[in-house]
Amino acid sequence: MAFRLGIPDRLAGAPLPRRLAWLTGARLLFLTVLLGLVGVFYLRGHFRFDSFTIRVALVTLAVAFALGGVYAAVLRSGQHLAFLADAQLVLDQLTWTAIVYLSGGASSGATSFYGLSCLVGAILTGLRGAGIAAFSGGLCYAALVGALQMGLLASPPDQPAALYVVSSSELTYYLAVNLLVMVVVMLLAGYLAERLRMTGGQLVEAEERAEQAERMAALGRLAAGLAHEIRNPLGSIAGSIQLLRTGSGLSDEDRQLCGIVEREAARLNDLVTDMMDLSRPRKAVFSTVDAAAVVREVVELTRRSGRGVSDVEVVCTAPEHVPVRADSAQLRQLIWNLVRNAVQASIAGDSVFVTLVVDDTGRVELGVKDEGIGIDEPAKARLFDAFFTTRSQGTGVGLAVVKSIADEHGFVIEVDSEEGHGATFRVAMGQLVEQDAAESAEPAASDLGDRAEPDADPATESEPI
């Protein structure tokens, strides 16, 4: 087990079965080396084959080899691996105790094996494994030394008796030093193992962010092509359908088909726009913006669009003026996406509540609440991830745009939801600012006008989560 010093970096991030497999092989190799040393001592005549030390050493090694076979069988089954790791540590400490007994007792140099097992425990299961190895090793060593000192265990008859005779002060010294070494190795190895585990997790997160950035770059190139190749034909289709609907010879069925074409064209336009917003965000230009005016404008637009006209009521509560520091167009986009998401998460007869409040300290908070089916915990954790959606026809872009804008502005988003009880999105927008008359929130129809026509059905617009 002590042989593991050379490969901790390679195994630190490996799964437990893989680490156990490496350590089982390393243990067998180390035991083979010990068996070779026993053979060398025998061949050189230091001990006879029938001597006590040789017999005990061979029995100890035979048991260790047999346990190695048991470890391999349990590992192959894939069951109880955590227990197997703990058992290996304890049984290894017992093996080292037998070697310590044969090589001098309290003063044996083989006590260093105890510390090496602490390192192996840290590699296997972190601080917990190092603690199990240190505790079991300290207990075995103290029990061996105590038994020898009290005469409960005789020293090996073929070893020099002087090696096992120690004074009380020497015994205290050996116990203190070896136990202290085990504790220090346990803490240091456990700490390093935990740090390495955390670093490995951060590396995985960094790789995921790099992959997402690469996807965003590819999406940006795709979105630019889509904007050029699709938007112009869509504009022609939408204009032609609007002209066609003004004709007097159309039947009700023809008008219905025209409406379908119009809604699907709007849906494609929304998808292209959302992708461009996400993949190639515009740099925010901050000014003093009346957030209350923006909220009312967005809510009014929602009321004139799709289900906001028919089966979902949008209720707005906001003060007269709420000046904040923001990019006017991006703030409209954030509010529009949240309100649109809430409307699309609702069913017929539900209401969506949009609130803008200012507390006693001047902090501004936007709230968008729906009465839909809610969000479960797994989905809540990935709510703002790009391309994550719970809808079969969704793309998972709208809320990702919201998160991008919020991060750019330093806003903090919180989501309260229970499955089956709707969801509430809260956006902390910072402090009120002094409003400059020259900087006011102007309607930006160009930002949202292409996204929602009065007859459009948001069920076919950019998708909610």
What topology does this entry show?
Layout: H1 8-11, H2 16-43, H3 52-77, H4 81-102, H5 112-125, H6 127-150, H7 168-245, H8 252-279, E1 287-290, H9 291-303, E2 313-317, E3 323-326, H10 328-345, E4 351-358, E5 363-370, H11 377-381, H12 398-409, E6 412-417, E7 423-431, H13 445-448
Parallel strand pairs: 2-4
Antiparallel strand pairs: 1-3, 4-5, 5-7, 6-7
Low-confidence stretches: 1-13, 437-447, 449-465
Please give the share of residues in helix: 55-70%
Secondary-structure element sequence?
HHHHHHHHEHEEHEEHHEEH
Distance from first to last alpha carbon? 51 Å
Q: What can be said about the biggest beta sheet? A: 5 strands, mixed
* Number of spatially distinct domains: 2
Supply Rg. 36 Å
Please give the number of β-strands: 7
Structural class: alpha+beta
Number of helices: 13
Task: Identify the strand order in the major beta sheet.
Answer: 2-4-5-7-6
The global form is elongated
Beta-strand proportion: 5-15%
Mean pLDDT: 77
Provide a concise account of the structure shown.
By secondary structure, this protein is of the alpha+beta class. The protein is 59% helix and 9% strand.
Q: What does this protein look like?
A:
By secondary structure, this protein is of the alpha+beta class. The protein has two domains: 2-208, no CATH class; 284-460, Heat Shock Protein 90, CATH 3.30.565. 59% of the residues lie in helices and 9% in strands. It is built from 13 helices and seven strands. It has helices at 8-11, 16-43, 52-77, 81-102, 112-125, 127-150, 168-245, 252-279, 291-303, 328-345, 377-381, 398-409, 445-448; strands at 287-290, 313-317, 323-326, 351-358, 363-370, 412-417, 423-431. A five-stranded mixed β-sheet has the order 2-4-5-7-6, with helices on one face. A two-stranded antiparallel ribbon has the order 1-3. A hairpin with a 5-residue loop joins strand 6 and strand 7. Helix 3 packs antiparallel against helix 4, helix 6 (127-150) packs antiparallel against helix 7 (168-245) and helix 7 runs antiparallel to helix 8 (252-279). The longest helix has 78 residues, at 168-245. The chain is elongated. The two termini are 51 Å apart. The model is unreliable at 1-13, 437-447 and 449-465 (pLDDT under 50).
